[in-house]
Sequence to fold (360 residues):
Amino acid sequence: MRGLVHLAAALDLPGVVDGGAFAGLARLAERGGLDFVTLDDSFARPGPDALGVLCRVAPATRRIGLVPTVTTTHTEPFRVQAAVATLDWIGRGRAGWRIDVSVTEEEARLFGRRHTAPADALWREAGEVADVAARLWDSWEDGAEIRDAADGRFLDGGRVHRVDFTGTGFSVRGPSTVPRPPQGHPVRVVDATDAHACAVAARHADVALVRAASPAQAAGVRDRLREQARAFGRDPETLRVLVSLLVDLGDGEHAAEPGHGGGGPRPSVHGPLYRGGPVDLAELVASWHAQGVTDGFHFVPVEPRRDLERLVNGTVALLQHRGLFRTFYPGSTLREHLGLARPAGRYAAAGAPAVSRRAS
Fold:
């Protein structure tokens, strides 16, 4: 028997800097029970920092996962992992991290430290950042914090570990400055559309976003990702693969163009686009899920406020009525929403050298 479908949505609001607007959309998505929301970010265009915005959204929501895009190309790996871990603490275990790279020379000039590099090198570096981030999240064992005010002790130094990681372009000694996140590892998300990103998704991601305009295409991409994950020594069942669709719900079922609505998505310059109404979209989700070609969908609304409202009140409500999507959150963390286990800390199990054997 197939499990319930996973659903997520983008919160992108071009030109908007008001945190309350993002919080309102996140609350709407949470009312529909969506697994998580994403907020895109890039050095190539103006706009607020996605991670900062979702730190503002976290206290305004209770259950929905929060996944900002954070590029690895011009940001320090130590800083990235600490910021994502902080979001996980603020959200009480609801943080994710959509890993991306910066490919243009214009973005490189914003920092002035180096020129841009080929995509394969950038994604190789992104994989190393994803790797060291997980090691730094593990550098504090669970329970390393003592917080004994009477004795003046904050942590047990014997349960905090160095990572001593050396990559192709950076090295990190560690440990992290942030205690181990509530989820152990915040959920790592990779858009696997780019061929170079596929390897990073297969090796490090908990969720891979793929673009597919047909069930056969979705099945082929998921099968390839799972085979890659197996080749890296992973259990492929620990990788959730979600089809990312642009959705335009402005005209409804009766105005759907040929090839849209009940006919399915149509390729566009920005990726597969569904244009129709909430009922036909629910039918599409149900059909693809029944065929077993995807674990779920990541919807990118063409008109954020309008389309997200129609998704929640129409498509999601229909899927809930058919028993294909949950009506409440059974857990409190994003990993629980996705059916993913909380990883064990690697250094405690391995008996790795600690920073100090004295409690401090």
Residues 119-138 form the longest helix (20 residues). The chain has a mean pLDDT of 92. The CA atoms of residues 51 and 83 lie 8 Å apart. The two ends are 51 Å apart (CA to CA).
